[in-house]
Amino acid sequence: MTTLTIRSVDLHYGAAQALKGISIEAKPQRITAVLGRNGVGKSSTLRAVTGINNVSAGEIVFNNEVLRKSPPYKRARLGIGYVPQGREIFPLLTVKENLETGYAGLKPAERNIPTYIFDLFPVLKSMLGRRGGDLSGGQQQQLAIGRALVTRPKVLVLDEPTEGIQPSIIKDIGRALQFLRDEKGMTILLVEQYLDFCRELADDIYIMDRGEIMHAGPAADLDKPEVRRHLTV
Length: 233
What we know:
This protein has helices at 42-50, 72-78, 95-100, 115-120, 122-126, 137-150, 167-182, 195-201, 225-228; strands at 4-13, 16-26, 31-35, 57-62, 65-66, 80-83, 155-159, 187-192, 204-209, 212-218. It has 233 residues and is an alpha/beta fold.
């Protein structure tokens, strides 16, 4: 059972402070959603978790191990799978080649594409020979999630997976995340702005504003006016 804990973390970009003492716990077999308006530090939180940016203070604890300044590739090998905002697939590689980039941190015996990925996203199997750049935005998002799952993550970290995606594929992504939590026992940390998606999927929520955590609690809190006010423009 894997827990990811963000403990009193500060993060700076030069002189600018993006995160101010934030603490978040992504519990085993639960979907934890981090919400907030644009520019409040949500993506910076995930960049701290994945090691893209080093924290200025505080610590990231994964499976009882303090990650300190571990680079992203080491965190991936430990079991942190990352689906970045904007998908960042390789447009000139085929779907199959994009998925195989997830092999980098795996042992030779593990270098295969788990069949359940094609069960979750059948379109990927039918388009294995297509270039990633030829896929629609929603299909690219499915590909980005599939690529992260190839790495055999214990924790899946996603940055706004519904952004710019058509409703039918948003539903597919939601079903996939439920399957990963309920059937694969995966811990999921999700940054989102789509409230209905979080209300349906999330177990726990954190709301950020100006680099700080303003509220933490169960997803049902999204129906409370005093909580929703943190999300209004």
